[in-house]
Amino acid sequence: MSTQRIVFVGVGGQGNLLASNLLGQAALEAGEDVVVSEIHGMAQRGGVVESAVILGEATSPIVSVAEADVLVSFEPVEALRLLNKANKDTLVITNTRPLPPFTVAIGLAPYPESEDSVAFIKDKLDKVVAIDGQGLAEEAKNPLSLNMVMLGALFAAADLPIPVKTMKKVIRAKTKKRFAASNIKAFDLGYKAAA
What we know:
By secondary structure, the protein is an alpha/beta fold.
């Protein structure tokens, strides 16, 4: 199997780390070689959180400039921030619902329109999937399931060596039981939106 480098980026509290860890566990369950790494910003204050899942042979847990095969962004401006990890063949999957930082909320900084951010990405890359992931999480009756929506979108849009049923099995086993049904529904909604 060739190496696949998947980068997840979002804002603290969006579930980025759980998504990458669940994907890593599903890869192990499917018998794939996998490395998962995390870079924490000031997550508890809504700061940037970045993680990577490398499937296949890996010599480093870090995804360098222009090395990402897939960039999964839980927030549109974070997709812009990490575009340097993309190359002409990178697939970008982004949530279109913004989560502006505190400085924007108090009027100290501007924030681009979500449509402008997505248009900029589409101007640079050919493979872009943009969905209202937060809206789909709310439709699943679990506003905290954005991460499951984005995992579903990843499975629909990328050619992963992990069966969907394995990913769902891991979600059921490794997330809180009371959220299992809504997490699977969120995954399915994300999958359908990106398919």
